[in-house]
Design a protein that fits this description.
The complex is a heterotetramer, with two copies of chain A (347 residues) and two copies of chain C (317 residues). Chain A has 347 residues and is α/β, with parallel strands linked by helices. Chain A has twelve helices and 14 strands. Chain C has one domain: 3-Layer(aba) Sandwich (Rossmann fold). The radius of gyration of chain C is 19 Å and the shape is globular. The chains are: A alpha/beta (347), C alpha/beta (317). Bound molecules: thiamine diphosphate (TPP) (2 copies) and magnesium ion (2 copies).
Chain lengths: 347, 347, 317, 317
Amino acid sequence: MVKMTFQDALLDATTLEMARDDSVFVYGIGAPDHKNIFGTTTGLVEKFGENRCLETPLAEDSMTGFGLGAAMNGMRPIHVHIRMDFVLLAMNQIVNMLSCASYGSCGKLKAPMVIRAIIGRGWGQGYQHSKTLHSYFSHIPGLKVVLPTTPSDAKGLLTSAIRDDNPVIFIEHRWLYFAEEDVPEGDFSIPLGKGKVLREGNDLSIIATSWMNIEAMEAAKMLKEYHGVEVEIIDPRTIAPLDEEIILSSVRKTGHCIVADNDWSFSGFGAELSALVAEKAFDSLKKPVTRIGFEHTPCPTVRKLENAFYPNAKTIVRAVEEKLGLPKSDLSSQDLFSHERKFKGPF
Amino acid sequence: MVKMTFQDALLDATTLEMARDDSVFVYGIGAPDHKNIFGTTTGLVEKFGENRCLETPLAEDSMTGFGLGAAMNGMRPIHVHIRMDFVLLAMNQIVNMLSCASYGSCGKLKAPMVIRAIIGRGWGQGYQHSKTLHSYFSHIPGLKVVLPTTPSDAKGLLTSAIRDDNPVIFIEHRWLYFAEEDVPEGDFSIPLGKGKVLREGNDLSIIATSWMNIEAMEAAKMLKEYHGVEVEIIDPRTIAPLDEEIILSSVRKTGHCIVADNDWSFSGFGAELSALVAEKAFDSLKKPVTRIGFEHTPCPTVRKLENAFYPNAKTIVRAVEEKLGLPKSDLSSQDLFSHERKFKGPF
Amino acid sequence: MSSLSLDLYKKLFLSRAAEECIMKYYHEDDMKTPMHMSMGQEFIPAAVCQALGERGQIFTSYRSHAPYLCRTDDVEGFFGEMYGKISGPMRGKGGSMHLSNPDLGHMCASAIVSSLIPVVVGAAWANKMKNTDKIAAVFFGDGAVDEGCFWESMNISALMQTPALFICEDNGLAVHTSKRQRQGYKNLPDIIRHFDVHVITSKSTDAEEIHGLVKEAMDVIDKTQKPVFMHLECYRYLEHVGVYEDFDAGYREKEESWYDSGALRVQRQRLLDQGMDEKDIVQLEQEIETRVENALMAAKAEKFPEDDELYEGVFYG
Amino acid sequence: MSSLSLDLYKKLFLSRAAEECIMKYYHEDDMKTPMHMSMGQEFIPAAVCQALGERGQIFTSYRSHAPYLCRTDDVEGFFGEMYGKISGPMRGKGGSMHLSNPDLGHMCASAIVSSLIPVVVGAAWANKMKNTDKIAAVFFGDGAVDEGCFWESMNISALMQTPALFICEDNGLAVHTSKRQRQGYKNLPDIIRHFDVHVITSKSTDAEEIHGLVKEAMDVIDKTQKPVFMHLECYRYLEHVGVYEDFDAGYREKEESWYDSGALRVQRQRLLDQGMDEKDIVQLEQEIETRVENALMAAKAEKFPEDDELYEGVFYG
Ligand SMILES: Cc1ncc(C[n+]2csc(CCOP(=O)(O)OP(=O)(O)O)c2C)c(N)n1
Ligand SMILES: Cc1ncc(C[n+]2csc(CCOP(=O)(O)OP(=O)(O)O)c2C)c(N)n1
Ligand SMILES: [Mg+2]
Ligand SMILES: [Mg+2]
């Protein structure tokens, strides 16, 4: 084990896989420049040469098709996007082409491609640099979708994503980049499609995605402190294929469920989680599922409104209090996470 | 009232609005050609001239931006796509640009644009010509999303969509084109955001979108015939903004809900409907909501597998029987809809 | 008589015979798949596939009957797919618009216009990285070049020097819309010449002439790893989709000159000029026709896939 | 001294002073918005906005400080937006990357590279249909031209003859990536000349010279309704985003010649040559600086929007 940040973990997984398999390569706008996609591609050019860590023209759509073609011919491309919003330019290649490359050849061709997309917030991103959109990908048969929360998961899941013979959309919240923990050294993978209990508890289940797990962990601390309530937190990690069982057994145990999805709620992945739980753990539910997500507006730039736009640990605490019929605790002394503690812009 | 098919109703609404307001224009690949988008643009060039019914280069992305720019400067564009799948090329313009044109100018600019997209199935469309994707649009704040089922609704809702000062995604199932019913003549609009009870009943609520309403109506007949069961069918018509109340009051009345969405279920709009009902009509639900949708695979071409891919009236009958604990009726004599027999009514 | 001339004629005749057979049986409505016919344009795929031979990795649009047959010679699988039967290379899941048989060099087809152009850039780049002798080639129309991804792909391919073969089959139409209604420039090849791409153009319908140009392209690729853009004019005999003529629709005239210079006619005359006996040609033609008809009948008689095949191939392996 | 020369200098100086003021206060971390500075490139927006005047409908990228100030002269709103205050034209919802003030002719900005290029094609077309005297103009960089939608837009605009003004500010870089690493061709304007578009190019940093070229463009638009593509070379003084230089990062050299020929210097000298007194210039400069500093201070003192404004403007009206 060695202490690593989330971004180090991503770089570690990438470096190891590139060393192990010379068909793996990384490309994307800015991949080999000196900023190195928040340090997640540092040293790749030096170690593996310019043909394995490539700069590209600004052409998200065609560069996705490029990856698909390379994958069909035996390569394992990792396409990096510094903002999820830019992936919208590539929806045709992802949804109409990549997702069905195997089906469209009756299983003869494969498309082992990883698309890394960074999501996140803060510091004036605004409505064109703040989208998550994981529901878009999870909706499409043939795509796998991963949203790691911890550095270990980042390493283990990225390794599996690279080794997978299918297209994997790998979604990273930029605030997680500074998280640090002990991560297994060397070869380490975590199977796609397995969720994780981030925190055990018997009183209520919180199913959270990506950054919302951090908020949920904060909320759990407050709930224990103020109410002695023990919430269980489930991080599905891979949302397609989804580990239904880990979610359902938690809810069957606690009888209560809050879904905290890192996205707009309406018609989003949070709806899938809420529907799943209500359909398949119906008899265990003592109260309806509560969904927490972004406010249903484009994301504003100014910090004050941005703070109103995003749900946080307090939002979760309030939802738990309401569901369990607890009095509202005084949270005024609680400091919410602010990325300035780690991070000073610009970008 | 005059008997009209669904496509006539669309043409009627378009023609009337173009006559009423000369900022309205129609454009898209094939819009003015002799096939006239299944007859929904017939005569527009002759009546209004070449500048109001435009052919375009194959450039879905930029032609969407084109519409946005024209809308900002006072026009009311209607952009037609003969397949929803092609709209995937325009996701950037729709999601990153069109949806937030008003927000992005602090409410000063408007983007009154209609995007008509045809969905559907049959006759070897395969996995690149069969997508629905309404959940993609309903997920995004700032977009309105309409899926009419009947000719009257097609006319009334398209009229409202054209008059609306916001972007509206208007989704038409091609099998509906042959439906025929009495439609109000002349000026006729139906407000966006209002659902409709297609059939009244007390035993179970079916919330269906687009073509699935037709299957639900067929199923309702069989259920009445075989079991004396009266299902209620709710067509939300506009899914964003969604008429929650009409859905919830039906479920509160019947205590049972089946969601039949014309799309893949996982992470789709069906999930939103199921989640909504379970969250807000929790206490009325006697059983969990059942979701019906496409099989979670790309759509195959051969008719036999296509029939296995799409749910139909029988799927709904079986789901109702299971939910209500009824014996399986013998449906072998029931003929399923096939578009080779063009569809007339029931509306 | 040269074996090249004969091989080309066989390919041309096979494609034509297969499509004539489709026309003969389509009305029965058992081939439930939208037909975008190659008829009139076969000389391009025939020449390209003949020249590339086993080196060719073919990517096509929905208009892929001739490329498929010329590359794979798999008439039996072809009709299997048209009828949606398990004898099709995709066991019926693909149909006419999605022919794919990578084992035989026909990689895949896409019904989304222009969407395989960037894919072939990546495929070619992989070939370069892996040092294979394969040549990735993509067929697309004059409508596809309207799409942004065509231009992105020209740029990327020129920049990265990916040894791809871009074949623009310019039949002057996208569905019913002429180039004049879609293009704000006069001459596409003249534009592409500004990119670091080798450009070849032709208006000829002579398969053998085109074959020579493809050989030139292969030479460029082998010597320089440069991408090659071939702009080849042609004429669509039938409606955009379907098995009939539609000259009565009024969007274009029937241009007799294209039929006079039709590739099959030219190539057949060449064989005669080269001394092949008329009756040998006729016999060859009959053999092909019989093979085609038998393949169609066999496909009719084949089984449909089982319903549980629906989920096969969603994920690889 | 000509009023044109003076007006241009005022615009140049205003943009520069505003950005210098940003540099001065940015470290306080109260302007929480990513700054893509115009510094070094101001002569282009100054010339364009001066020439277009009230006729101009400006669409920009995230790099829009100079276009915004040159078009609107709204320094107060500008700083309001930088600080996210209700005095900003978007009441803080937009920030540096999304300046929009349609009432003053700055239509909107987009942080998605190239995405306003097609929008301006449509805006120009509407102007043509409605017979207004407005001219829709879009600013974009040499990175934007990599994107397919740039090429689609050139084609559409040429085809439909939409009287749009396309202004490519070619600073040679997309973030840290040079054109050489992104473009598989030598000369963009030479390619665009093949489209039915009027092309104007310049390497000059002289705002007055560019102003003349924009007047030429307007003439073409007024006489022929033809779109005009202006390719203008320039030099970014600072890092891609942020308020510092980053020549130490190693991706490019500091090129002194661009500073020597800097537009402010050139234009100031012109005023002197035209007989304007040094001290009048200094006074003018001081007035502008004071105005800028006051605007910044006023913005600091302003209110943030109320939380319930979050939902305002999601739908129009
Ligand atoms: C992205 C996309 N837009 C629109 C269509 C509808 N469509 C199918 S074929 C076609 C015309 C294509 O013309 P061209 O590329 O010249 O090919 P041809 O049919 O002439 O071989 C169009 C517009 C499509 N399939 N994909
Ligand atoms: C579609 C898209 N892809 C990538 C980015 C990230 N990005 C922001 S600015 C930029 C460079 C753009 O360069 P250029 O167009 O030359 O403009 P400049 O910054 O030089 O003014 C990139 C790649 C983006 N904003 N949008
Ligand atoms: Mg064509
Ligand atoms: Mg630049």
